[in-house]
Amino acid sequence: MDSSTKYDNPSPRIGVNPFSRLVF
Q: What's the angle, vertex CA 15, arms to CA 18 and CA 20, rounded to 5?
């Protein structure tokens, strides 16, 4: 679970679920 990676790399999941980045 690398939150820093998610923030640095906007995943397409964020578009579908804005809360996805928070969970993952």
A: 35
How far apart, in whole angstroms, are the C-alpha atoms of residue 2 and residue 20?
13
Query: How many Cα neighbours within 13 Å face the side chain of 15?
Result: 4
Ramachandran angles phi, psi of 14, nearest 5° = -60, -35
Tens digit of each residue's pLDDT (9 = 90 or more) over 1-24: 555 555 555 555 555 666 666 555
Would you say the pTM of this structure is higher than 0.90?
no
Residue 21: exposure state from Cβ atoms within 10 A (0-12, 13-18, ≥19): middle
